[in-house]
Each structure stands twice: as structure tokens, then as C-alpha cells.
Amino acid sequence: MHPCLRHAFFPVTFPATLLLLAALFAPTVVHAQDAESHSGQPQEPGMPLLGLDEIETVFFTPKHIHRAEMINLAQRLHGRQIFVYERGGYNAQPVQNLQTLGDSILIYDEPEYAARLVTWMTAMDRPADLIEQARQKTDVIQWSPGYVSLPTAQQALRAFERVLTLDTEEGTQRVANVTSLPDQNVLVLRDTADQLAQMNQLLASIDKPEPQLRVTALVITAHHGSGGESELPKSLSDHLSQLVPYDRFEISSMGLVRTSSRSNSIELNMTTGDRFDLRPDAYDAKTGTLSARIQFQSASDFKFETRTSLVTDEYVVIGASGAEPTFAVLRIEALDG
Questions:
Q1: Which residues touch 86 (CB under 8 Å, ≥6 apart)?
Q2: Considering only 82-86, 261-265, 266-270, which range has the smallest mean pLDDT?
Q3: Which residues contact 137 (CB under 8 A, 6 or more apart)?
């Protein structure tokens, strides 16, 4: 258990079977797409304007709950009207996103919204013996991150988010099971003991110090003729000699930066005008491999973009150009602390 967790208990009672399940399995609301993308049509509050290519039609057939009962509750909690751009937009009649068709419920909405509704309906469509299992009391804990940001932790819990119906001294209330208190750097988690255990396990897996890396960038030029002892590591010099028929290599610019392995962007701008821009995809600490998209631009306007993997403690030549070649070389090292 996290050292910053505190507990409290509240009983949960529900006025009706379906309302109970609706509260437990309510999906996160998907905000309507900004209507400004459709020829400047005026925005109708709460009613999205969508193009046909933004709408998906999905059918759901309940197995345990009557279709009419299911759609009535779905329309009450998650029903909305949408305007279709190709059918006249806000100048035409809106379309209901939930309709009945035979024994099925037709969902006509954005793909993400439709998928969430299907997930919600699937969770609602349960036999009566499983419904009784939902009548459990909840536990409330406060969780404070040690290493990750509060928004990152809350984003990780998106799959667990739902709405609960509680009987309190003030009466019946509907509350979110995950509440963020940014001023206190705290997440308030309210749910059953089993759900809280799973949320804590997930938070513990992400709330860890981020592995640190040192990235070294070299811009190296090749020359003919002797010029004294090479200033490069022998392994790198030998490798370059195998790539091009030159016998002397010198560093024209160098950059070094310490960064988190989870960084979205790593930039090295050298005083010479050379620039490296790394956009990591993933870092595998077990193999010491960083996969990234890499852009390089030299002071002489030689530039390229590539996607490759860098292995810790190895010099990697990622590109070269010119009669007396200019090489772009990177090396990463894993740091303990």
C-alpha cells in the first residue's frame, strides 16, 4: 500500500437494478468534435456537427435485458443528437444517436463514442445473479504520486473510470470514482476493494523513477593524409575507415545531454550550427535499446531523417554526406541515478 493512502468506507445502495449498472459502467464522455472544420457552420451547444466519414453504424443485441429497457436507459444517460454535414448540417433536422431496429439497438455516432457505448451496454447486459454482486460498499483512498505527474497517473486510470451511486447523509449522490485534486497533488479513488487493488497495482507500476540516459552526438569529418593521432575512440575510427577510404577523422562538433528515457523529444543544438533532433518511440531497459526517429541538420545544410535503434555504449553512424564526408554519430549510455 502506498504510504500516502488514507481510508474511509461508505455503503452503496441502488434504487433500481438498471440504474445500478448504469452508474457502475457509465463510459467516459467523448467530447463533440469542433464544428469549425465544416465550412464555418455555427456551433449548436451540445450537438456535434459530423461528416459521414466521421460516423460509424454499430448494432448491439441485448441477451439478458429487454431491448426497450436497455435503450430507454441508454438514451437517458448517453443519448445525444448529431447534425450530419452532408445532410444539411445545422440547417437540417438532427439525428438521434440511439435507435431501435428489430431486436437490436442501432448506434449512429463517432467510432470512439460508439465503441464506448457498446462496452457500456455489454457490461449492463448481465444475468440477475451477477447484478446482485455489484451491491458492495466502497472504499475511499487518497493517492499521491512520487515520480509521475498527476495528469499522467489519471490518464493511466482511464480504463477504470466510472460513476457510482452512493447513499450519503445528504441523500443519494452520483460521484466519479476517480477525482483529481491538483492543488494537493492527490487523486481521490472511490471504488470497491477489488477495483481499488487493481488501480493501485497499475499506479505502482508506472510511479517509478524514470531510467536516465546520456546522449552524446558527434559530427565528424573525414580527411586524407596523416594528421597525428586520431582523437576518436579506436573502435569508432576503425569502423569509419571501413566505411570510407580515408585515414584521418576529426570531431567538428559535439553535444551531450542527460535525459529521461521516456522523453518525447531530445534536442542537441551545437554552437557550430549542427543539430540533432530525436523523437524516441520506446526504450527497452533490458536490452538497453532506444528506438527513435532521428533528424539531423549540419551547419553546411546537409540534412536527413531516419528511424533506427541505438544500443547503449555503442557508437552508431546514422548518416554521412560530402566529398570529404561529414558523419553524424550518436551514442547513448544508461545512467544509474
A1: 51, 52
A2: 261-265
A3: 9, 10, 11, 12, 192
User: Are the C-beta atoms of 297 and 251 separated by less than 8 Å?
Assistant: no
Dihedral (CA of 86, 87, 90, 94) sign: negative
Give the CATH number of domain 17-130.
3.30.1370.120
Q: How far apart are CA 129 and CA 197, in angstroms?
A: 24
Is the pLDDT score of 125 beyond 50?
Answer: yes
Tell me: the pLDDT tens digits for 27-69? Answer: 443 333 343 445 455 554 457 889 999 999 999 998 887 888 8
Average pLDDT over every residue of 162-183: 81
Following DSSP, what letter does each residue of 221-265 receive, concatenated? Answer: EEESS--SS-SS-HHHHHHHHHHSS-SEEEEEEEEEEEEETT-S-
Give the Cα separation of 67 and 125 in Å (integer).
10
Q: Which three cell numbers stand for residue 7?
A: 481510508
What's the DSSP call for residue 267?
E
